[in-house]
User: What shape does this take?
Amino acid sequence: MLRIRQTPITVFALLIGVFPLIAGRIAVIENYPDVMIFVGIYCLITIGLSLLMGYAGQISLGHAAFYGLGAYVSSILTTRYGINAWLGMGAAMTVTALVAFAVGAPSLKLKGHYLAMATLAFGIIVYIIFNEETAWTGGPDGMGGIPGLSLFGFEFDSVNRYYYLVWSIMLAVFCFTVNIIQSPAGRALRALHTSEAACGAMGVDVARLKVIVFVYSAVLASLAGSLYAHYMNFVNPSSFDINFAIKLLIMIALGGMHDIRGAVIGTFLISFLSLEWLHVFEDYESIVYGAILLVVTVFLPNGIAGLPTMAGRWLKHKSRG
Amino acid sequence: MQAPVDPILHVKQIMMTFGGLTALMDVGFNVPRGIIKAVIGPNGAGKTTLFNVITGYHRPTEGSVHFEGRQIQHLKTHRIARLGMSRTFQTVELFGNMTVLENVMVGRHHHLPGSLLSCGLKLPHVRRAEQHAREHAMAILEFIRLADKAFEPAHSLGLGEQKVLEIGRALATDPKMVCLDEPAGGLNETESGQLSELICAVKDRGITVLLVEHDMKVVMNISDEILVLNYGQKIAEGTPRQIQHHPKVVEAYLGGDADVA
Ligand SMILES: Nc1ncnc2c1ncn2[C@@H]1O[C@H](COP(=O)(O)OP(=O)(O)OP(=O)(O)O)[C@@H](O)[C@H]1O
Ligand SMILES: [Mg+2]
Assistant: This one.
């Protein structure tokens, strides 16, 4: 595995830090910090998903549902029970962890397509609950009046303030996850992707490790959902449907799911495409996504993050022949 | 053969069926501590199945397995590995896209702190343990003579080196006993000679070896005891000399691909 170096991460963090200052002065990208808030939120989900799918090799189509759980539990607790938003967020992560454990423990015993089907079914069920439990969720009309976030009297009430909040969390989670990848736990994860049988003979508790990573990635999605809800002050089920679950997959596939940095790159591209650049296509948007997925799976199996290796191999081949 | 004192492994009347097929029938034997014991038999005799039962990949239909006096046939693979029994696989099961060194380091897994929290925060004790594991793994690579390939991806190794690396990875778990499933399969004469030396060196480290092997030269040269399976049943057990001349063994191998004498 290529080591993930610290310098590029620091540079990236600095760029993120100065971006709103620059964007504010250029009219055409004035609204980009707002888009970037969603990029940061989605990154929280795709970072966990990349760990689960790219590194550990476990397919999940249920992460839109964990994202929704985070959003709805936070929203319900703060609006209906007046609970502090941070506490609500913590409660949402706890609830999501429990649900993820209950879903993951049996279904992670399944392999490949079956695991994908089980998590897909879970996602659909949760989506139906969001729509039907009108007393709690407001049904298809959604629920509003969700409070914003504040810390010690400091309100995250402007785009830039929320931007810095989201991206601080995102960068912390990114570094934490990079550390996991480059640790004994990460090594075992990558190993079980190739051979669960051999992992067992090495003393790795495969079943437990898979559940732990599944729960970790679900909790990140929940955190993302809560941040989304407290930013939008409104949620409705359509943000958490199967289309979104698939969009998450396209993000990590495009970036390259075997590399956590790829997940971030893919999230940037797909988010900007869907929030900014693809409006011209209107109803044909999903065709564009389909095309992207097709091109990536056929020509770029390791996504954008795999490009340097591919280019290197190509150059070697050229110089030889 | 006299009953050995303190066998490290005691296998008692194992029966293993898959649907209607009986792969193992009433197989029982002991492995004395510190020896090399070979399991031989024609293709499909049940050797790999026996390994799978011993190391927890299959739960036997009947019978029990005792490792260091403790019943283990109901335990999961990783629990058995942590008790001190590791294995290699007939079809190489390396972590191909990881480096040679990383492959061995996975073997150190249960000696390392592995909680997501301590790993994610890169706590000092994780870093120290990781450094220690790296040194330990390098020492094992020296032992199996693969140190110069430490940073190459495992899939780039030749078959002989891959088989050796699997043994190294198993050694990294600090086992008391290793089960090697056809380590010489597909190797040439020189390679299998080196492999025999390596297996003897493993034994000299005080590690008991249970060995499935078709290469009779390897088996006869290094084994202290041999167990012969045929159609899932034990047909003979004894020293290499006793086995070579055992009428049932000669019969079982007649027309087979291996040359017992
Ligand atoms: N998981 C399984 N399910 C069904 N049948 C199995 C299974 N594993 C092994 N068998 C059957 O059990 C019998 C013994 O197989 P096993 O692999 O143990 O033989 P072996 O002695 O290792 O042979 P070889 O020398 O070819 O490796 C075979 O008939 C095989 O088809
Ligand atoms: Mg076999």
Notes: The CA atoms of residues 122 and 305 of chain A lie 30 Å apart.
